[in-house]
Amino acid sequence: MFDVDSTLVQGEVIDMLAAKAGTETTVRRITEAAMRGDIDFTQSLTQRVATLAGLDARALNDVADTLQLTPGARTTIRTLRRHGYHCGVVTGGFTQVIENLTRDLELDYVQANNLEIVDGKLTGRVVGPIVDRAAKATALLEFAAQAGVPITQTVAVGDGANDIDMLTTAGLGIAFNAKPVLQAVADATVSSPGLDAILFVMGLHAHTFAASS
């Protein structure tokens, strides 16, 4: 199970949306505090999404079109699938932005937040339960059950405080270019520009890696 922002893709989607709304400085400051674990994620997400009120919903597609996979991400997913792994994502980001990406990667499980849109504009609110730290761990348990995989045989990869419960629930929790608060509880830490470095942590050999295209 992968986190999305700053793990499967480069950067933070909420920051990209804030740039469209002209609230980037405020939102980035809140994002950084949340990733460090200085403030509660649910509170921080509510505050950040509120700054997007009035933003044209077309900005979601604009951001989706500019998303860049982390180097090695496609190789990682394809290699894991070749080896029989089920691959999914759970993110505090937004369904409307990542749905095309997750479809392209042919992921088996996707859970994300949903932004409320009324009359073609963001309201500044999230619809439904917020995917927070606890929800990420619950999603991992649900995904494992659906796939028929014991939780001890699962792997979770993330970078921030919001991933703590997910990584500690997984059989193997990997902190990828992560904040110190997550590194402290992870089973393994990877500091590399390429996501495919996690494959070595999982015991896979380079000659078995799938091509990225």
Automatic annotation (TrEMBL):
Query: Listed GO molecular functions?
Result: L-phosphoserine phosphatase activity; magnesium ion binding
Entry keyword set: Amino-acid biosynthesis, Hydrolase, Magnesium, Metal-binding, Serine biosynthesis
Catalysed reactions, semicolon-separated: O-phospho-D-serine + H2O = D-serine + phosphate; O-phospho-L-serine + H2O = L-serine + phosphate
In this protein, the active site sits at: D3, D5
* E.C. number(s) listed in UniProt: 3.1.3.3
Which GO annotations describe the biological process of this protein?
Answer: L-serine biosynthetic process
Keyword Magnesium found: yes
Q: What does the record give as cofactor?
A: Mg(2+)
User: Would you name any one GO CC term?
Assistant: cytoplasm
Q: Per its UniProt entry, what is the enzyme's top EC class, as one word?
A: hydrolase
Q: Which pathway does it operate in? A: Amino-acid biosynthesis; L-serine biosynthesis; L-serine from 3-phospho-D-glycerate: step 3/3
CDD domains according to UniProt: HAD_PSP
Q: Its domain of life?
A: Bacteria
A Pfam family recorded for this sequence: HAD
What protein family does this chain belong to?
Answer: Belongs to the HAD-like hydrolase superfamily. SerB family.
Q: Which NCBIfam families match?
A: HAD-SF-IB (TIGR01488), serB (TIGR00338)
Name of protein: phosphoserine phosphatase
